[in-house]
Amino acid sequence: MNRDLTTYLKVFPGWIDPGLCKQTLKEIRRNNWVQHEFYYTNTNDYRSVSGSRELDVSRDQISTTPQIMQRIWDGYLAYTQSLEFEWFDGWKGFSAVRFNRYRKNRVMAEHCDHIHSLFDGEIKGIPTMSLVGLLNDNYEGGEFVMWQDTAIPLKQGDIMIFPSNFLYPHRVDPVTRGTRHSFVAWAW
């Protein structure tokens, strides 16, 4: 086992077909969007860390969702197989895709992915892997930053997978031009 944390952050270039990205971008324009909020376990409430600068999210499902979900499944499989760990053989389930929209000056505050809202009593587990996919790259700014100072370059169609725990704090810096669209899902 490698003790270098960067080993367990993997980017899969061009994982989502450009045509699928384009069709998804076309359809999510009609989605219902709400401002993102983080859940705080110690106070049992939701709040926006960055105020009005926090990104917008949509959980609306669209016609391309099944294809994206298949590519997410394929990505998780490729990730777990690449680890070659006898003690880690996969996942029990994964969330529906959530779409993220970062308009000009929008951000996602630094956080780690302890996604409590995935588990409602019927579904039980802990998030083990986070998957982020980029739907477009015709914007400026909006860098995905891990560990406070490591920008992870992503292009349209790339997906990135990393462990969902406190060792992988990350954020998205302000978009300075255009709109950044991505999606995210979590496995447990």
Characterise this structure:
The protein has 188 residues and is of the alpha+beta class. The protein has a single domain (5-187), classed as q2cbj1_9rhob like domain (Jelly Rolls), CATH 2.60.120.620. It contains two helices and 15 strands. The chain has helices at 18-28, 65-83, and strands at residues 10-12, 34-35, 38-40, 45-47, 56-58, 98-102, 108-111, 129-134, 140-141, 144-146, 150-152, 159-163, 170-172, 175-177, 180-187. Strands 1-12-8-15-6-5-2 form a seven-stranded antiparallel sheet, covered by helices on one side. β3 and β4 form a beta hairpin. The longest helix has 19 residues, at 65-83. The chain is globular. The model has no long low-confidence stretch (mean pLDDT 92).
Could you write a compact summary of the structure shown?
This protein is α+β, with helices and mostly antiparallel strands. The chain contains two helices and 15 strands.
Query: Strand tally, please?
Result: 15
| Portion in strands | 25-35%
Strand order of the largest sheet: 1-12-8-15-6-5-2
Arithmetic mean of pLDDT: 92
CATH topology: Jelly Rolls
| Helical amount | 10-25%
Q: Determine the CATH superfamily.
A: q2cbj1_9rhob like domain
Broad shape: globular
Based on the model shown, name its key terms.
Jelly Rolls; alpha+beta; four-stranded antiparallel sheet; 2 helices; globular; 30% strand; 188 residues
